[in-house]
Amino acid sequence: MTTQLSTPALSTDEMVRELYDRQQITDVMLRFGRGLDLHDWDMYAATLADPFEVNFFDLTGRQPAVTTPDVWAKFASACLEPLAVYHQYSNFHINLHGDEADGVFYFTARHRLPNKHGDDHYTQYGWYENSFRREASGWKISKLKHGFQWCDGNPLLIDFTNPDWQRAADTVFGS
């Protein structure tokens, strides 16, 4: 005998609101990626709450921190400005909790930089585990957690020795 889980009946207005909120959060993630791909740091920063928590341990080896959208956009620029990038998201799983939400979003992040010292590409495969907060201007990312399961190619395309990258990382995560 199978057990059936019961879910509370939602009114049409509640269903429409839930669908609308899910679409708005999806759009935040799509603008997040598009801002990265276009190197449009204003578009990218506009997806983030002020302040917000960031966890990029898999990439940086540094502990989570609290930062601002402008500071984080400068860090992203220091990482990605020299590269052609392409971010693709899938498997959106969004949980709504009133004016807050969380979700998991799978990604493939491709990075390319022609060079003489190795592969010209670096690809990360993983997911974001983000939290969101509804603000007057719409949904914003309040916690950004980036993790990857594996990578292909040349990870040295993101130059952690670059002084601009070091300064930007130190500003976010401390030295």
Unreliable sequence segments: none
Q: How would you describe the shape? A: globular
Strand content: 35-45%
Can you count the helices? 5
Largest sheet, order of strands side by side? 2-1-6-5-4-3
User: For the record, what CATH class applies?
Assistant: Alpha Beta
Rg estimate, integer Å: 18 Å
CATH-derived architecture: Roll
Q: Structural class, from helix and strand content?
A: alpha+beta
Provide tags for this entry.
175 residues, Nuclear Transport Factor 2, Chain: A, 34% helix
Word description of this protein:
With about 180 residues, the protein is of the alpha+beta class. The chain is about 35% helix and about 40% strand. It has helices spanning about 10-40, 40-45, 55-60, 70-80, 165-175; strands at about 50-55, 65, 85-95, 100-110, 120-135, 140-155. The protein has a six-stranded mixed beta sheet. Strand 3 (about 85-95) and strand 4 form a beta hairpin. Helix 4 packs antiparallel against helix 5 (about 165-175). The mean pLDDT is about 95.
